[in-house]
Amino acid sequence: MRTEFKEKLAHKGWAEEEIKKAETVLENAEKHDIYLSRIAYYSALMVIILANLLASVALMFLAIVIESNFLYIIVASLGVVIGFLYNYLVTDIGHLEKHHHIFGALIIPLVAIFNIILIVVVANTLIQELGIGNVAHTPWLVGVMFAVPFLVPSIIEKVFFRKK
């Protein structure tokens, strides 16, 4: 607690013991806020990773039956939507440090790229094994078509809505 605030409380008639108790309560509340913020952050990361997994599985069935250009549009749209979800869940959580945001900005696209590449490889294998007349998709290109749009909401937030 700031010295000037303590002096203000003392001037209002607070006893030294009451000021120390108030200081302890405020310090404990901040520790709990930090703890709850971290729980909320890691829970949000798990929700986003789960959304990526579910979207990737749904995407596998689409990748089997649709051609590449339309798949790229769907994947890019999915990337933007999940990017907005991530940005919405994580940016307003208080008491997060810069490394939390960097970690999330790195781990989510990497997990998503890995999921999508894996799903596209499985879809390509199914296309060949089942003899479906669709062209095989390029896994890395599909992964990039997800990751870049995923980052767009975060970039928009930092450029246009930067908190001062």
Question: What would you note in describing this structure?
Answer:
- With 164 residues, this protein is an all-alpha fold.
- The protein has one domain (44-160).
- It is 84% helix and 0% strand.
- It has five helices and no strands.
- It has helices spanning 3-11, 16-65, 68-91, 98-130, 139-160.
- The longest helix has 50 residues, at 16-65.
- The relative contact order is 0.13.
Note the topology:
Blueprint: H1 3-11, H2 16-65, H3 68-91, H4 98-130, H5 139-160
Helix content: over 70%
Q: Which class of secondary structure composition applies to the elements?
A: mainly alpha
Mean pLDDT over the full residue set:
80
Shape descriptor: rod-shaped
- The N- and C-terminal alpha carbons lie at a distance of 24 Å
Low-confidence stretches: none
User: If helices are DSSP runs of H or I spanning 4 or more residues, what is the number of helices?
Assistant: 5
The secondary-structure element order is HHHHH
Portion in strands = under 5%
Short synopsis of the structure:
The protein has 164 residues and is mainly α. The protein has helices spanning 3-11, 16-65, 68-91, 98-130, 139-160.
